[in-house]
Write a structure and sequence with these properties.
This protein starts with 11 loop residues before the first helix and ends in a 17-residue tail after the last helix. An 8-stranded parallel beta barrel has the order 1-2-3-4-5-6-7-8, surrounded by 5 helices. The protein has a single domain, classed as Alpha-Beta Barrel (TIM Barrel). The radius of gyration is 21 Å and the shape is globular. By secondary structure, it is of the alpha/beta class. Helix content is 38%, strand content 13%. The chain binds 5,10-methenyl-6,7,8-trihydrofolic acid (MHF) and 3-methyl-2-oxobutanoic acid. The site of 5,10-methenyl-6,7,8-trihydrofolic acid has 17 residues, from α3 and α10. Homodecamer; pentamer of dimers.
Amino acid sequence: MSTPPRQKRFTPADIGALKGVRPIVSLTAYTTPVARIMDNHCDLLLVGDSLGMVLYGLDTTVGVTMEMMIAHGQAVMRGAKRACVIVDLPFGSYQESKEQAFRNAVRLMKETGCDGVKLEGGAEMAETVEFLVSRGVPVFGHIGLMPQQVNTSGGYRSKGHSEAEQDKIRRDAKAIDEAGAFAMVIEGTVEPLAREITTTVKSATIGIGASPACDGQILVSDDMLGLFNEFKPRFVKHFAELANVIDKAVSDYAEEVKARTFPGPEHTFQVRPKK
Ligand SMILES: Nc1nc(=O)c2c([nH]1)NC[C@@H]1CN(c3ccc(C(=O)N[C@@H](CCC(=O)O)C(=O)O)cc3)CN21
Ligand SMILES: CC(C)C(=O)C(=O)O
């Protein structure tokens, strides 16, 4: 008896192996129905802590909790059949020690079934990345603009406009690459630096505001869908205008309710005739 081929999700190793082969397609995902759609087109889905801003209305990602990441990680896992799913470690869940990072990374993996975790940081996090990877936790790094450091870095500003900043990012990339991250997000930095890092590191570079030179690209899904309009970073392109679509639908609904044209006869139950 032959067993039917099982649809398997991309592993972190599969993602890393795409470097130099073809561009890696990734987006953030937070819910089951949207993950189902994205799963048809993306290699990697990131349950990003940006959910605090785009789903919960927080001003920054600092207030995001483990419980929020677990709930949305579980939702995305129910919708993803082939994409690699990575869940963000939220602010405060890994910076204290490598042991704390391991404990929370394992909790994310056990409670959601995800394929690995993402954490922000460069040289200062290299020891933690090495600790996790050597103990079975695939790590997606994140360097350049690090949103969880918004309160010490002077806001959401692109990085690498001075030699000193470029040197720091270069060292950060090297440190987490050598620590064993299978891939790294490079966020908000200048093109020549992103290109140089991409050609020097072993891990796959996934850019957001880091030029087309990276091994792949990621965007916050609510940004590219035109659903989040509180601010629009230079690196965002709207591939749809869903906020306008929703506004029109709700406005039409309100008009029909007021005019009593909705619900119509086809939406209304009548008593079934007796047989
Ligand atoms: N919806 C959303 N999209 C994101 O890309 C995102 C989040 N939320 N939340 C977490 C972080 C915050 N990010 C941000 C937020 C704002 C800018 C921004 O407005 N940047 C300006 C100024 C750049 C500069 O001064 O150098 C820009 O024009 O891009 C960039 C990244 C990226 N991440
Ligand atoms: C913007 C992406 C890379 C991210 O870190 C997030 O969604 O939190």
